[in-house]
Amino acid sequence: MMTTARIIVLFVLAAIAEIGGAWLIWQSVRENRGWLFAVLGVIALGGYGFVAAFQPDAHFGRVLAAYGGVFVAGSLAWGIVIDGFKPTLWDYVGSAVALLGAAIIIFAPALQRASE
């Protein structure tokens, strides 16, 4: 159970760092908010790399593939909360599918090992 909680917390922290970092760079470049936003974005993106490396699964490809689903849902959530984005039903459906895929990728191998 602790491993599951750790995985979820790390994915949430990684999402905040990556999406927040990309948003800061977007603000710098697209919204002319200044280079400080870009520098902070680069630092946040670097932090994302470190957070992702703390996932208990040792397979880089699996962790990043699963994170892709978290990134999809997290990006939409960021847009809703920070930018006032109004998602469609299909945004929600796509996000749910991406999260389901992420859960299968990250948790199914552990479940399979536990049943062996």
From TrEMBL:
Cited SUPFAM superfamilies: Multidrug resistance efflux transporter EmrE
Transmembrane segments: 7-26, 32-51, 63-80, 92-111
Keyword NAD: no
Pfam families associated with the record: UPF0060 (PF02694)
This protein's GO CC annotations: plasma membrane
Organism superkingdom: Bacteria
Record bears the keyword Cell membrane: yes
Subcellular location: Cell membrane
UniProt main location, coarse: membrane
Topology with respect to the bilayer: Multi-pass membrane protein
Keywords from the UniProt entry: Cell membrane, Membrane, Transmembrane, Transmembrane helix
InterPro entries: EmrE-like, UPF0060
Family: Belongs to the UPF0060 family.
Protein name: Uncharacterized protein
